[in-house]
What does this fold into?
Amino acid sequence: MTFDPPEDDETQGRWKRHRDEGPASKGWKVLLLGIGALLVLGAVVVVFAGRPIAFAIVKRQTARKFPDIRWVDGATLASWRSDSTRQAPVVLDARTEVEYSVSHLAEAVRIDPYRPLLRPLKGLPLDVPIVVYASVGYRSARVAHWLGAHGYSNVQNLGGGIFRWANEGRPIFRQGAPTTEVHPYQPRWGLMLESGHRLVAPALEKRSAAP
It folds into this structure.
């Protein structure tokens, strides 16, 4: 024996809503709400507590892509540059001209991260100490790898890039004067910058897996 729902439109509408809100439908709603809550929670963790974790993940993924490169952290680089008994490294900024114009490390020379040239190193020996940085370290790792392929044997990549350098309160400059602003590259990556350093700027064209 079968049961056929009444044929009038109002009753059919109630019948359809009843079927749509059965256990399976409710289960999907709960699942979607749960996923949404996790995404919100994840964003909160990244912004307020997860930056060190995010930097560590970027470094690990970048090192996996470029296993041949060496790394230097911000504290070591700052100490190195202030030590008059050591040869100061050539510091290369592997970001776009727009990013460099907002801020950069003291005396850093820009090198194009997508079409690099050896011009900034002209006349220097192949064993000259070099530190390359980008926003978080991926583009600079590419440049460091490229330099190694061209015979430069003493190249290091700055872990966390200028984002972490600025977050740690280290000096950055614009046209020779101190500043606190850093170009965020893109809004999503800019969350790795402390809000006080994050310049409000249009997103740049994404041309690599990470900045």
